[in-house]
Amino acid sequence: MLSYRPANLDTDRDFIIAMHILGNFENDPASLRLGDINAYRAWWGHAAQASEFLEVIGETLQDERTIAEVWQEDSRPVGFLWVVFSRIAGYEMTVAEINDIEVAPTHQRLGIGTMILQHAEDLARERGADLLRSETGVENQGSLALHRKLGFVPYRTRFEKRLDCPDAVL
To answer: What is the pLDDT of residues 114-128, one digit of tens each?
Structure first.
């Protein structure tokens, strides 16, 4: 049975970091992936990024609207959701920004991502958000399709260019 609970940054640390690394890997362009997921995980795990990432989540939890949940199937973690809230200056609007939404590879394509995203929308609305934003990589076809299916539309396009090897294709 699928359920969710508030994330505990101490006991869920390894799972949250693993989900964040997977999400980054799936959404980074191929030129930044540093090989396969295992090489990427090793690089990311040895950097100070893991501790800094958990520290940022902890800081955002000071806002009672922040959503940080572990989704589980029969008490086994299978997904992670992290949503933060902010105001858009000059527009008097509150934005709920999905910083992380990830489903373990063993549970992808089973409808769990759809449930988590719909749940995030419901909670964002309940907590006063006017907009729900989410970001995904241009190569992450599954995530792009999921977002479109649930009514998300692109609102901005970001470009980047590698300066260390200008002929590289991103």
So the answer is: 999 999 999 999 999
